[in-house]
Amino acid sequence: LLKLGTLASELATVVPELKRITSRSKAMVACYPGGGAHYVAHVDNDGKHPLCRTRVLTALLYLNSDWRKGDGGELAVLGAEDSSKVRHVVEPLCNRVLLFWSDWRTPHEVRPAQRTRYSLTIWLL
To answer: What distance in Å separates the CA atoms of residue 114 and residue 22, rounded to the nearest whole number?
Structure first.
């Protein structure tokens, strides 16, 4: 994730909206302890909360070296217009990096984790 700013700059040549990015947040590490731990549907920038409304892109790195099907903890990307529809499900495989819009365009949830699940998140602001 060291080159995240460079990646965002390069992508801005084809996605002009990314030119708004001027900094990034500190890293946040999340641990879901298993036993069905999950996170409800949400967006990372609701446009209201002062600490969240500057988030443009969410960068997520999974840190689960031995994740297997059935372990749970997948990220479900939901429909922007209808959050009851699942657009995509992402398995939390080690070293997988996801980039997605932090605002209303990418509602998402963490499905129940059956074993410990780790991730690192940085927001591009």
So the answer is: 38
